[in-house]
Design goal:
binds zinc ion, about 35% helix, alpha+beta, three-stranded mixed beta sheet, three-stranded antiparallel beta sheet, 5 helices, about 15% strand, about 160 residues, Arc Repressor Mutant, subunit A
Length: about 160
């Protein structure tokens, strides 16, 4: 449907309002909201998610855009530095960006490469050893590496019985 003068398209309006809200959020963190930074912000800040930089690069350019890999990596680093994202270094080759910046821990599924939030019981903090003299705990980061279970022999026997 063509948008004629005087007509409004509620979807266009809500997209524009969401983009404006993102720009305000970036400015509040001292970040100049360039078009490319807003494109990246739309991908990473539009809902709770854990994404790797390569996924962000692919999503930002999905519509034919030409945001460079360096711009994506630098912008994600800037967003993390300014507290918009949390950087999660899973291992030397895997860094994820988490749009949930509140304190929480993660399960990392080695088999499919996904991260899942994990809440720790509040009393866990009381069980931790004291920090070395002259220091304090800034953050608690726990990643539990998990793998998918292989079907057990019992499960295989059950599925064997149902095989036609
Ligand atoms: Zn998370």
């Amino acid at each position: 449907m063509a948008i004629l003068p005087g007509m409004t398209d509620s979807r266009l309006f809500s997209d524009e309002a969401a983009r404006t809200a993102l720009a305000v959020r970036l400015v509040a963190c001292g970040i100049t909201p360039t078009a490319q930074r807003l494109d990246i912000a739309e991908v990473v800040l539009s809902g709770h998610q854990h994404v790797a930089a390569d996924q962000v690069l692919e999503r930002v350019n999905r519509g034919g855009g030409a945001v460079s890999k360096a711009t994506v990596y630098n912008t994600l680093g800037l967003f993390a530095e300014r507290g918009l994202l949390r950087e999660l270094v899973i291992d030397a080759s895997r860094v994820f960006y988490d749009s949930n910046t509140t304190p929480h821990c993660h399960f990392y599924n080695v088999d499919d490469g996904t991260l899942t939030d994990m809440a720790l019981p509040p009393d866990v903090l009381g069980c931790l050893p004291a920090t070395p003299a002259g220091t304090y705990a800034e953050a608690l980061e726990v990643v539990i590496r998990i793998r998918n279970r292989l079907p057990s022999a019992a499960d295989e026997a059950i599925s064997e019985n149902f095989r036609l």
